[in-house]
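Progress note, sequence design subtask.
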């Protein structure tokens, strides 16, 4: 095949460099598949274009509109996925490996689209937490909000997941309303370039939202400001170099790093060769060693087992590894493809040579290639019987199909050995004993970004040790980079600024589009339940008539519902309870009577009561007390073209104007 000439996407046009082109070789055949370069790009103009054109366009869209855009991008990638699978073969990836990258990447965009619609408002500002009361009379309050950063996100990605690695960052970035410049690793950038083309050709992205560099980023980092973010994935050495860039340090540019990681797995001390967890563990270690030929930042590099079981584990893992078929990923029956490049093969061999000074190879030969040409190697299992005398095994990442098996003496020993990775993306524990699991979480949690606890109950549905998921954080402390990506909406916050607002309830209600207690209520007719979603305004309110609660009401409610709890039925027992003066009304009676007071019964725009949030019973209601309700429209969130959710502030008071219950009522209202 004629090498592809890869293009950059710069200030709205595709640009191919004419000079200083670098070749990229197929990992399978060694022949050139692409050439690339970024010579001649005006990187300052790129950053300026993102800030001046892409950012304002994205910020003009609401979270829901951005979410819809992500869904459209994911659908386009799925519709054209075979183009990506075809290119991905040259990276040495099997169909299964590429599925993680391509469909896993699109799936991450789908997940962010769905989270954006469900968990974020149809708005451009995001409230963070509850209102903080700051004064006695309630005229001065605080509210944290998130607003979009006004700069550009620079995404510098690793070679192992050319699509997913880009998409897992673009999902949260676009949802936050921030434009991105993507720079993939050169060796697999032909797959990324194709994916970028698919997204741009949808026409869904506003101009300036996405730009793309193949090759060097030139002087781009010189032009960063405090509104920009660098999100880096790759080696610790490059991360350090970039993090120490004078502009990044001087401007406090946000820097998220996902670096290499000496991830560990532990077979629990409760396991024997007979417990189901033993087999589950062995399968998982082999899967982690061979998926993507071990080129996953989350792969298991250190495998810890009870000392008494180390021979059994070695034999079981070796027997499974012997069944692995290494070869051309395009050929049927291949279960493990090649490494991503010749350079990668050299690096992994060098790392194994270092590991072998402390451990012995018990499976595989790193130096003979199981297939002619390309970057193929067999899986390699090492064994180190004295892990406390060793340091390289805890420190040197062989970024290939390689793991080191080690014994531990007891659980405390296993925990301390795991933590010798000095901060990892993930560890896994195979145990059925809840006490073992608790001890590991308390002892090793602080050193790990994610902990998978696998057992017979969850093994079938488990997503496995090595899979970062959009709803869970991906990142880890220490040598893993100290970063955090994804984690659902947490990942969106990384591209926004949190600001503490202080002011009057009226002012902060208007800014956050959420009514805050203390703001004037609008309580003229009509009843708020007569107003459609569009015409109902935040702050629209009703104060109901009052109703006295009698002992007969309480007894009737008790008999009708079956709730004859003594606090409602037995004067003496109720009075002995520290919370009650004597018999009191049921909390649910108060809620039911409150609804009876505020509803407007005729058919109208209110379609359904969909729930209650933050319910608190504050003061008991005794027979003879009189209650009334203030119901105020607090926030609105559109669900579709026809209706949306209204959140109401409900305050139930007694005859002395004391609050007896507060809650938020949710209704679905038609336009
Ligand atoms: P690398 O050499 O550090 O490269 C990573 C990225 O940085 C590539 O896009 C590379 O571009 C770019 N880069 C290199 N030097 C740069 C510079 N001076 N300025 C700007 N960009 C620069 O890492 P690698 O060896 O390709 O990747 C493997 C490593 O990544 C492994 O250690 C693995 O553990 C780690 N990794 C971590 C995660 C994670 O989520 N924690 C995920 C995947 C991989 P070029 O390719 O053009 O040089």
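Output:
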């Amino acid at each position: 095949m004629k090498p592809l000439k890869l293009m950059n996407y710069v200030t709205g046009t595709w640009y191919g460099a004419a000079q200083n082109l670098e070749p990229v070789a197929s990992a399978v055949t060694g022949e050139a598949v692409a050439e690339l370069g970024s010579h001649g790009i005006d990187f300052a103009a790129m950053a300026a274009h993102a800030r001046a054109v892409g950012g304002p366009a994205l910020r003009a869209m609401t979270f829901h509109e951005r979410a819809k855009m992500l869904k459209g991008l994911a659908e386009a990638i799925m519709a054209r996925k075979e183009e990506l699978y075809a290119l991905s073969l040259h990276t040495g990836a099997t169909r299964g490996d590429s599925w993680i990258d391509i469909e896993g990447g699109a799936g991450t965009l789908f997940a962010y689209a769905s989270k954006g619609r469900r968990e974020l408002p149809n708005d451009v500002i995001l409230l963070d937490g509850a209102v903080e009361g700051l004064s006695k009379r309630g005229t001065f309050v605080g509210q944290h909000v998130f607003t979009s950063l006004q700069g550009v996100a620079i995404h510098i990605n690793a070679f192992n997941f050319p699509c997913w690695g880009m998409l897992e960052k673009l999902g949260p970035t676009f949802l936050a309303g921030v434009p991105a410049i993507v720079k993939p690793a050169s060796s697999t950038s032909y797959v990324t370039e194709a994916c970028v083309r698919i997204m741009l050709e949808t026409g869904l992205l506003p101009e300036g939202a996405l730009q793309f560099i193949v090759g060097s980023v030139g002087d781009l980092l010189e032009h960063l400001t405090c509104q920009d973010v660098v999100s880096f994935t790759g080696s610790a050495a490059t991360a350090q170099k970039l993090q120490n860039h004078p502009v990044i340090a001087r401007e406090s540019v946000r820097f998220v790093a996902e670096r290499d990681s000496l991830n560990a797995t532990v077979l629990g001390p409760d396991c024997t060769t007979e417990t189901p967890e033993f087999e589950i563990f062995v399968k998982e270690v082999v899967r982690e060693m061979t998926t993507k030929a071990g080129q996953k930042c989350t792969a298991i590099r250190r495998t810890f087992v009870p000392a008494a079981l180390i021979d059994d584990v070695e034999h079981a893992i070796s027997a499974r590894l012997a069944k692995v078929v290494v070869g051309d990923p395009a050929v049927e029956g291949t279960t493990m493809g090649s490494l991503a490049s010749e350079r990668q093969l050299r690096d992994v061999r060098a790392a194994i040579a270092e590991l072998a000074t402390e451990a012995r190879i018990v499976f595989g030969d790193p130096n003979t290639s199981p297939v002619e040409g390309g970057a193929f190697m067999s899986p390699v299992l090492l064994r180190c019987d004295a892990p406390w005398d060793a340091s390289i095994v805890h420190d040197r990442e062989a970024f290939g199909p390689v793991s080191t098996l080690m014994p531990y003496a007891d659980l405390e020993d296993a925990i301390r050995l795991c933590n010798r990775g000095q901060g990892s993306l993930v560890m896994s524990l195979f145990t059925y004993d809840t006490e073992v699991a608790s001890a590991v979480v308390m002892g090793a949690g602080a050193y790990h970004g994610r902990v998978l606890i696998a057992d017979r109950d969850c093994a079938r549905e488990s997503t496995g040790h090595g899979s970062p998921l959009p709803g869970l954080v991906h990142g880890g402390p220490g040598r893993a980079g100290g970063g955090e990506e994804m984690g659902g909406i947490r990942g969106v916050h990384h591209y926004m600024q949190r600001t503490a607002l202080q002011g009057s309830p009226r002012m902060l209600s208007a800014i956050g589009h959420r009514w805050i207690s203390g703001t004037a209520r609008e309580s003229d007719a009509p009843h708020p339940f007569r107003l459609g979603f569009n015409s109902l305004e935040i702050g629209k309110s009703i104060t109901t008539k009052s109703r006295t609660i009698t002992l007969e009401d309480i007894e009737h409610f008790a008999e009708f519902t079956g709730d004859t709890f003594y606090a409602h039925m037995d004067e003496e027992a109720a009075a002995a309870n520290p919370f009650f003066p004597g018999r009191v009304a049921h909390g649910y009676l108060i809620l039911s009577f409150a609804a009876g007071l505020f509803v407007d019964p005729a058919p109208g725009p209110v379609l359904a009561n969909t729930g209650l949030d933050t319910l608190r019973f504050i003061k008991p209601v005794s027979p003879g007390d009189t209650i009334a309700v203030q119901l105020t429209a607090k926030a609105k969130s559109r669900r579709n073209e026809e209706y949306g959710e209204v959140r109401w502030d409900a305050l139930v008071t007694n005859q002395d104007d004391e609050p007896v219950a507060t809650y938020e009522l949710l209704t679905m209202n038609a336009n």
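The pocket of NAP is lined by residues 156-160, 183-187, 217, 233-235, 238, 241-242, 258-261, 297, 397, 399, 425 (CB under 6 Å). Work on this subtask will continue into the next period as scheduled.
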